[in-house]
Amino acid sequence: MPEGHTVHRLAHAFEELFGGQPLAVSSPQGRFADGAALLDGLRLVSTEAYGKHLFLGFSPAPGGSDEDLRWLRTHLGLYGSWTFAGDATFSAPHAIGAPRRRVGEEEVAGDGAGAAAPAEWRVPEPRGAVRARLLGEHGVADLTGPAACEVITAAEKVAVQERLGPDPLRPDGDGEAFVRNVRARRRAIGELLMDQEIVSGVGNIYRAESLYRARIHPRRLGRDVPAARLSRLWADLVEVMADGVATGRIVTTRPEDRTPPGEVRDPEGEPVEGEPAEGERWYVYRRTGLPCLVCGAKVAEAVLQARRLFWCPRCQRAPRRRV
DNA sequence: CACTAATGGCAAT
DNA sequence: TTGCCCTTAGTGC
Predict the structure, then answer these.
(1) Strand C and chain A: which residues 183-202 have CB closer than 7 Å?
(2) Is there a shared CATH topology between the A4-162 domain and the A175-311 domain?
(3) Which residues pair with A143 in a beta bridge?
(4) With a 7 Å cutoff on the CB, does A201 touch strand B?
């Protein structure tokens, strides 16, 4: 998916584009018709990301308390996506969510060419299976392929959040709780990082890459990883995921491990500015069999909990005890 | 046209 | 551990 950084970007985007506005809410596909009817015409007053869940708060009456808000909870799952369109005042990326155009591209930037003057903009027809459509004065957001899309109460929202582990991207993200959560289990750290009750927002790329950066073998048991190393792992997640929020892309390699800027070439041999060379964005994710960017050993791959797991067998020393 | 993979998560076994 | 759900884009016949 769309890992946590994507969802935090979405929360910011909805705040900027629709915050404070009454929205027309519909379900062109029909599967969210009942929920859409509960929200249609209400004002969007709050946006919040927690792990991979996006919460949009709608006020049923002016001046109502937070307890009265109706919350739209969406979860993009493996391939959900939000697509935006609007007039010239509406400056969102075209789409935020699962990669569609090619592997590794998770956002499609608006090119500005389609931006019309406010008076000229026409609401586009929904494309594909649009579960939910939010329409404001200057733009529209369409949701396709979500794993979850439902209207819940404030109490239900609290219940969802209480089941989630600390989120490295939230100010209330509690690194010490993360360390305690991991060290309380004898499951592999590579499994624990994907468990949203242990830490929320980490997905398959951040799992593999943060373990590489911390030089921890993914099969080492949580309780066997020293607390100090877990604290550093948490701090690194905060850093690398915040970069994902800022840029909209996951880049985990350090500059010193990449081809120097100025020497990067595209496939035609032309110099490329400001982008990591192809294949140097990540240390191990989807680099099976390729040489480690640091030590040259072949990157290994295994399947763990039905997801592909990648690591460097030399930089990430094998644990004494395997799972 | 069939088949697959994709940065998830859940329930049933 | 398997299977199923959400949807799209790419591949290959």
Answers:
(1) none
(2) no
(3) A82, A132
(4) no
DSSP A45: E
Q: Which CATH number fits domain A175-311: 1.10.8.50, 1.20.1250.20, 1.10.150.130, 1.10.238.10?
A: 1.10.8.50
Query: What nucleotides of chain C have any atom within 7 angstroms of a protein Cβ?
Result: 1-10
Size of chain A in residues: 323
Asked if A81 contacts A97 with a C-beta cutoff of 8 angstroms, the reply is yes
* A141-182 pLDDT, tens digit each: 999 999 999 999 999 999 999 999 999 999 999 999 999 999
Q: Give the span between the Cα atoms of A46 and A116, in whole angstroms.
A: 28
User: Angle between the A204-213 and A227-247 helix axes, to the nearest 10 degrees?
Assistant: 130
- A165 C-beta less than 7 Å away from strand B: no
Domain at A4-162, CATH homologous superfamily: MutM-like, N-terminal (3.20.190.10)
Active site residue ranges of A: 2-3, 52, 307
> From CA A163, how far away is CA A21, in angstroms rounded?
31
Q: Cβ neighbours of residue A83 under 8 Å, at least 6 residues apart?
A: A94, A95, A97, A127, A141, A142, A144
User: For residues A40 and A26, is the Cβ–Cβ distance under 8 A?
Assistant: yes
**pLDDT band at residue A88 using 50, 70 and 90 as cut-offs:** confident
